[in-house]
Amino acid sequence: MFEAALPTLGKRFRTIALDTLGYGLSDKPERELEPEDYAQSIAEVADALGLGCLTVCGVHTGATFAIQLAIQYPERISALVLSGPPLRTPLPPGAPRRKPRMQPPPPPREDGSHLVKLWKARWQVAAPIDPKVFQKRFLTALMTGDSSVSAYHAVYKYDLTDRLKLISCPILIVYGDRDVETPNIEQVLPLIPEIPTHIIPGGNIYTVDVCTDAWCAAVGDFCIQAFD
Predict the structure, then answer these.
(1) Strand order in the sheet with 54-59
(2) Cβ pair 152, 97 in contact under 8 A
(3) Is 49 helix (H, G, I), strand (E, B) or coil?
(4) CA separation (Å) from 25 to 42, 65, 190?
(5) Nearest CA to 45 among 67, 20, 63?
(6) Are the beta carbons of 69 and 167 closer than 8 angstroms?
(7) Contact assessment for residue 67 and residue 167, using Cβ atoms and an 8 Å cutoff
(8) Which of 118, 153, 166, 199 is the most exposed place for a label (fewest CB within 10 A)?
(9) Per-residue pLDDT, 202
(10) What residues are paired with 79 via a beta bridge?
């Protein structure tokens, strides 16, 4: 997710990208995890690397875990960058918890048609993007298998809009104008007017890949200001 940004941000900061539990080459969880579990795993990585106070950036589901991390370990987080966060308007009291709509990859078929089906479904929300870059994202999701949707069960445990009000460190919301989360984000922004936002023209679900320079500039400038 952050591969394209690491060389640029790495010129200004010590920049570390990690696999969320169940994704990439990380261990696959044997149970359904909660936001607190994901936040704890990030804190444990920071401890293992001997890191102190952190600026944390999360994209989409990762933004949920970044928020939980700042709530769970406020003394460890100096600033948050939420890229395309899955914000929703708060549910009324007593309303049932939201459920994810993401589906795991389709089961394998002898003729490989399941790969074409998955490719087309993901391409619709990712294009325009370099097919080589998209293929890397596609293969990563395929390799993750059923775990690719595990984190989504944790995403909707809390109303993030209300959770943001529990955080005291600086926050930046950055998103592409073509991101699938953009309509929801813009619906929520009037409820959190004190949080600065940065819109990236042409950005989509892979804004970090398709608008790398613009994304890195926005994130890097915010981090510098947060440190000051």
Answers:
(1) 54-59, 77-83, 171-176, 197-200
(2) no
(3) coil
(4) 15, 18, 38
(5) 20
(6) no
(7) yes
(8) 166
(9) 94
(10) 55
Q: For residue 94, which amino acid is it?
A: G
**DSSP result, 143-177:** HHGGGGGTTHHHHTSS-HHHHHTT--S-EEEEEET
So what's the pLDDT on residue 157?
84
Amino acid at 35: P
C-alpha–C-alpha distance, residues 171 and 164, integer Å: 9
Three-class secondary structure of residue 8 per DSSP: helix
Q: Model confidence at 132, in pLDDT bands (50, 70, 90)?
A: very high
Residue whose structure tokens are 């990380």: 26
- The predicted model scores a pTM of 0.91
146-156 residue pLDDT tens: 776 778 888 88
Which residues are paired to 198 by β-bridges? 174
